[in-house]
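Run: sequence + iron/sulfur cluster -> complex structure.
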Amino acid sequence: MTRHVHAIQCIGCPVGCGGEVVIEAGAVIEMRGFTCDKGQAYAADEVVAPKRMVTTTVRVDGGTLPLLPVVSERPVPKDAIFDCIRLLRSVVVQAPVEADAIIVADALGLGVNFRAACSIAEA
Ligand code: SF4
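>> structure
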């Protein structure tokens, strides 16, 4: 079996631990340098199935601002990020919008909701 060693910088907190993840046959077999469970989970995900939070905007109809910032409730698989942005580009919400309102539920069947990052009043 071929082993691959990936150097990963954890971004889970300001400590910024650096470490290595060893992969064999697509599975994590060893980790070095991550000092907590959160960091180990991040590093394993980063190598096997990387994810990122997604922030973008959607159009607003009848509001005091033309665009509403939206954010994913949790990280989205990296290979689905541009499809999520394309989906959100087609969304138009009607003002008023409350902060934290769900703007798109279960985007692309990923189980991730996108929520309003702020309120926008009716014009
Ligand atoms: S491994 Fe833990 S302590 Fe180190 S940077 Fe990541 S979250 Fe912080």
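>> summary
The longest strand covers residues 3-9. The first helix runs from residue 37 to 48.
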